[in-house]
Amino acid sequence: MTLHIPQASLREALSQVLTIAKQIDAEGLSAAERANVAVSYVVENSSAPWPLALQRQILSDATKALQPDMQAPVATERPPAPPIATPSKAEGTSSPAPNEVSSGLMALSNEVVQALSEILDFSDLAGQPRSEQETLIRDSIRELSEDRKMHLNGREVTNLVNAVLADMLGLGPLEALLADDQVTDIMVNGPHQVFVEKSGKLELTSIKFRDNAHVFAVASRIVSAVGRRIDESQPMVDARLKDGSRVNVAVPPLAIDGPTITIRKFPSNPVKLDALVEGGSLTSQMAAFLGLAAFLRLNILISGGTGSGKTTLMNAMSQYIPAGERLVTIEDAAELRFQQPHVVRFETRPPNVEGTGEVTMRTLVRNALRMRPDRIIIGEIRGDEVLDLLQAMNTGHDGSMSTLHANSPREALTRVESMAALAGFAPGTGVVRRQLTDAVHLIVQVSRMRDGKRRITSISEIAGLAGDAVTLQELFTFDTDPSSTRTEVKGEFRYSGYRPKFATRAAEYGVGDELDAVLGTRT
């Protein structure tokens, strides 16, 4: 069915578009851009149907009217592109989904980047300040928009400028995901597949890279910012972003389907235990207990799987460390964010191109012992540095903390023994177990459950040695309810009623009554 619009309606609509376009601030906008904005506004606010051909005609006539000195285009010239506006429901076309819009913007930004490579000298651009880079790129994009008659309105030009700036000076398509507070993890599996984690669940996004070279360029930009490199000779790299987010990059030939980038984001504001209580990760009683444990300088191991929230919990517990203490943190990629004023941070270094210059975790731990630390905090123990940490805990550096990968407190003890064997200790001799019993006070187990929530499933105290076995006393536990479903985990946190061995230390620190109040016990 053909919809006929009277000529009077065309004249009336054109007059309305011109009236609105002339009221728009012309600074920085071409006649086509002002006409496009005005057409978009009129279409969106009109109750009558607007066929696409009519929109094109009005856009063309309005552009000519706003540029009286320009010659009329010849009849064979291609008509201007239709305005980027939401089609009316009368045309039977639904509003485009946000994912489709972002894909179109990405495709357009890719074309613009290629066009800018012919206009701008990127080598000269790289040596200029960021503000001048942005100004030159923005001006060049506006010129391209006018020369190629893209007919973009002011908002679309701004979005395009931001996309191109992110592609050329930032992290490209990942910038939007990094700005989204709901996204906690970003996983790039080659150029055409980008997953994110929101509320503990994985989601496939519509964001895509141009090709493998585009992904590799973004990955190189990330690792070079922290003085590292990624290539075939070193195809795996751990790095970090400016905000402390952890990054892992792997490229071919190890990554078969193209370069991969995995980003673990950290919240912009420091996470506190109260926020974890509100999120259901633990109870207020458990939070108060862990706060006292950090204040009392207990040596704590936080155990859990990948992405279970070990580092987040350690950051949250750090708020209870007194401000007058000197902390030394050692990590493979710096991600701990303590709020104390006296924090010295170290980061391991991989070998250089010649295979020399490597600085290991164990070397940094030994160096930290000569720096008069009150506490030594290791981001994650995964090798022979565990022996130096245990010795530090046993030689006056109480209050030290670290994380490790294990599925339960008992498995965490086994892993510590296995890692100590890497330092030359024969497993099963009992030496490591005695050191472990004397050094570590608490093991906190964290799990990410199938419903996406992260919970503290156990807080256990090392009670001592029974023969040749380390005995554990569980203080808090999370008991799963049988009514749990495939998508929802139900249960409750329970306190065992056991009085911890460090109650004597709490009394020496003057917080014995506070510990009794938290546990609900009285001696």
From TrEMBL:
Entry-linked CDD domains: VirB11-like_ATPase
Residues of the Bacterial type II secretion system protein E domain: 170-445
Pfam families: T2SSE (PF00437)
Renumbered residue ranges of the record's region Disordered: 68-101
Residue ranges, compositional bias (Polar residues): 91-101
UniProt xrefs under InterPro entries: P-loop_NTPase, T2SS/T4SS_dom, T4SS_GSP_E_ATPase
Gene Ontology molecular functions: ATP hydrolysis activity
Family to which this protein belongs: Belongs to the GSP E family.
Protein name: Pilus assembly protein CpaF
Native organism: Litoreibacter halocynthiae
